[in-house]
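Issue 218. Parser rejects a valid record. Input:
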Amino acid sequence: MKKILRVTGIIIVGIICCLFIFIQLRHNRKFDAPFPSILASTDTSVISRGRELVFGAAHCANCHAPEQKSPSASENQLIPLSGGLKFEIPLGDIFAPNLTPDKTGILYKTDQAIARALRYGVGTDSRALFDFMPFHHTSDEDLRAIISYLRSQPPVVNEVPENNMNLLGKAVKALVLEPAGPNEKVPMAVSRDTTANYGRYIANNIANCQGCHTNRDLMTGAFIGQRYAGGFTMESKTDSGSFFITSPNLTPHKSGRITGWSQGQFIARFRKGRVIKESHMPWEPFSKMKEDDLKAIYKYLQTLQPIDNYVAPGVSAKKGT
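Output the parser choked on:
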């Protein structure tokens, strides 16, 4: 019996060692993806559109501005997107990169490489990126505008640390993580109006509303809930402890948070900005969005399938003092 246990133990240890070696060898695997034919422009109207998206619906400053400066986006100050913000997730620490045209940022990255990272989730090193950004179906026109604005910023020297993945994170990269990309034809341009169709485009392909308002697995990032039905619990760490907020249901079911709201009430809520300090909602940039964009998003949300999922408002839990 002891011999059997010893052999079993040796086999288990051997399997673990082999798996460990496999993960170490595979977690930096590389992928191919096309390079979109997108080039930055120096046209002021194109850069202006990019600036509107970056500091508005795309809320880039909420991640790519230094942590101590990101709230300044609420004042429409065009702070450099010099990166460095750390995200502590179960897989390890991920750092938002420097997006200014400095050698520590995007200076030596081509426009097409940046476009590929945004659209196909493949970095300049050909490794898969964690799918935090919603730009897979962003139109060529808007992607060009965003990159054009990034190129127009003053360069800022900021050497951002490499992502630091723990063993679980490396295992996910080795076994699960693959590039995310478009699953339908990407438009060259999208007409800007107040229709539900444009609202769908802004909400899903620029603002990434479903990214928080749909429940998802924190380990893989995969959606595990019904679209826009809420239920995704997020943690905010503060000096006084950790706060947990669950995203509300935005579908037109009677349990939905905005069911019964008029278009005017919807817009007024955005103009009011941040109410719950610990909220992950990027209220500062969203509060500056054009009224027509908010009208379009409101109309789009009314077209969603009603889902019964009541989520209590406010901070749902707290631990530590």
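Fixed in the parser; the record now loads. The first helix runs from residue 2 to 26.
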